[in-house]
Amino acid sequence: MEKQKLKPGAQLRAALEKERPLQVVGAINAYSALLAQRAGFKALYLSGAGVANASLGLPDLAVTTLDDVLCDAKRITAATDLPLLVDIDTGWGSLAMITRAVEALESAGVAGVQIEDQITAKRCGHRPGKAIVNTEDMCERIRTAVAAKNDPDFVVMARTDAVAVDGLPAAMERATAYVAAGADMLFPEALSSLDDYAAMTKAVSVPVLANITEFGKTPLFTVSELASVNVALVLYPLTAFRMMSQAALHAYQTLRRAGTQKDLIDSMQTREALYEVLDYYRYEEQADANRKKEQK
After folding, report:
1. CA-to-CA distance for 284 and 191, rounded, in angstroms?
2. Which of 8, 143, 196, 267 has the smallest count of CB within 10 Å of its CB?
3. Is the pTM for the entire model greater than 0.85?
4. Is the pLDDT of residue 2 over 60?
5. Per DSSP, which regions of the chain are E strands?
6. Are 164 and 130 in contact (CB under 8 A)?
């Protein structure tokens, strides 16, 4: 009998059982997701900042919509069967929108969502001037998201930005309340020390994620360092995007300056390598077979 495939939420939970801490890597589009899969990652992340920056050319300042995020999420889940965790910021306003977001993303094959406690006019978690809603309002967001999911294994991850606003003790108190409201996992943003992570993992009974984003408030701790304080998931939301962007800028500048790409060739992915990732020849063979059928 063929083994039944796990649903996305169960896949994410199973990956966490097999790899701890689980490295979760950001993918800004379907092709990035395929590259991440080839590199051996077992879980993917779609960043709200990634959607705003890469798909819309806008800053991460609450300017995206559910449809913007859903479009990118659908493309990624269609391209790979790795479980995808999706950033839904504050849920786009009303509780009804949180319900709609969870229903739509679960239907799109997403493994879970991450929702945060900033006010609706949010900003990057590593920028100054953040403001957060009160604890009960965030708990209501979590309860709404949990009630909206159809699959019990679909993950609702609660992010708190309270460390930067009110300090670690207040954030730990909020984290406990968020777990009681039904959060499956916890995302404490902008922690600055391993001791902070140790305190947070002791405070809650659910898996805790460390956001190891570059150029932010959190040092670039290693997987082994985070494992030592019982962090369960390690997130790299935009590492590949930043590398891609710098490489693209260099390519454009070189083309403009030199009038040729000859000096860039050795740094490029080859056409053959691209075809291998995309399984190009299988598609081509199918197209040829279809053409022969049509000519009969």
Report:
1. 49
2. 267
3. yes
4. no
5. 22-26, 44-46, 84-87, 112-116, 155-160, 185-188, 209-211, 233-236
6. yes
